Fold these 3 entries.
Entry 1:
Amino acid sequence: MNRLRTALATAAALGLAALAAAPAQAAAQPAFLAASQMPPSSTPWTATQVFPGVPENGGVLCAPYKIPAQNTRYREFSTELDTNGVQVTTVARTEADAVKLVDTLRKSLAGCGPLLERQNPGLHAVSAYHGKLAVEEGAWVYSLDTADPQVGNTDIHLFSVGRDGRTVTLVRWGQMGDLADAPLTGFKTTTKTAVNKLY
């Protein structure tokens, strides 16, 4: 009988520990932007569910295959006017690994324009840095302005990379047009929200 009581007590203790751990595990997952937290648009934003891994083609424009698929999730955003975006968030093994990933992504974003021009003769692409934001361990904002004279298309993309401890998040916004058409101030607000929401 004593053995039975001990076994029941142990099982109950394990059950309580599991219940206590469940909310903690759920809370440990970084949170994502809501559609309403993207920069203002003339038509409403919609957001997909949060998916595991990285988006198609290994990540995002300017940083393909830089973000590991393991411990990574993403959410995509869109409007009726072809304005689109994505947030990719990864939890690194250590804080040092997170710092290294941020450095890698920042170099990719800063050098994206010249790289695209080398890969696509005739394309005009300009990357620009728009400063560091004071949020958690920091966030950095970039833009990519492209023009293809052969097709007559111009596109503008805004990017940001932010970090909170071991967690790194990358946000991209894009549409047709140029930098003058981009909501740079609103995107910086979105970036701060994204980093603050992680935990």
Note: Residues 2-28 form the longest helix (27 residues).
Entry 2:
Amino acid sequence: MARAWGLSVVLVVCGAVVAAGEMAGGSPGVGVALLVVFGLLAGVNSPLVFPRPVGALEARERSAVDGRPVVYWRPGCAYCLRLRMRLGRSVRQLHWVDIWRDPAGAAAVRAANDGNETVPTVVVAGRPHTNPDPAWVREQLSRPA
């Protein structure tokens, strides 16, 4: 859990230090602006921008029932963030597994990627796809199960 929030905490702390330096130097407006920018960066790189994750076993079971893809991801991953943002509202139609919270999810990703924890890994109909194009993932949501 701490690893998932690590980057966000570092960004907030760095932003606070930089902002305090600017404010102490007589530039409160710049300090506040920097604090806001660092806060936004921390938020975007936090687990908060992703749907609530489920365990790998539960995601596989749900996918078997409803035919929706399973997305294995981790906080701080730029490619995961890109996929999440480009999917827009359809993001809630997928089953999301945070590999830093779920060892079984991390093991599934390593099995699909020659021992590497490369994310996002999207499993559609039992077949893993590493870092797929978001448009392709959206197409998979519109196909019948």
Note: Strands lie at 70-73, 95-98, 121-124, 127-130.
Entry 3:
Amino acid sequence: MTDTDLSGRRVLAIVTNYGVEQDELVVPVRHLRDAGATVDVAAVTADAVRTLVGDKDPGETVRPSMALSDADPAGYDLLLVPGGTLNADTLRLQSDALDILRSFTSSGRPVAAICHGPWLLVEAGSLTGKTLTSYASLQTDIRNAGGTWVDEPVVADDADGWRLITSRDPGDLEDFLREIDTVLSARTG
């Protein structure tokens, strides 16, 4: 349970329908809802989302709020991009996901991505001048996309007029969620 009151805050999580790392979706969604935030999960289709544990073992099934194509990013305070190798690799090929991400970055709203989630930002060309972390295997992709990769539990970067919060893996969720709480608590409006 969190002591942070996020009532009135809205978060959009974007995923594919198969392969999202269970704890990188389920733990933040529950945490944010427990703190009073409204959290919607948008998936490629409105069908159930099958999560995985460790990229291989079946995890919880999550019912999305909507399909990516039906999501209106303008109504949200923060974008959450969970990882999972299969999820992230497929998500970065979805034009709707890229459009949602670009809506957040161009309007100065924060994006929180964990593990393989930053692959979406690589694909969108959104990392020039940013310092971030991720699952270690993404570091070359991040550098090639103009970002600076560091091996830290959580990194928050405000370069280019928007906040990017990143973490390496599910072991960093406590730090990741603390940083998300901080940015959502500070947002006005």
Note: The mean pLDDT is 96.
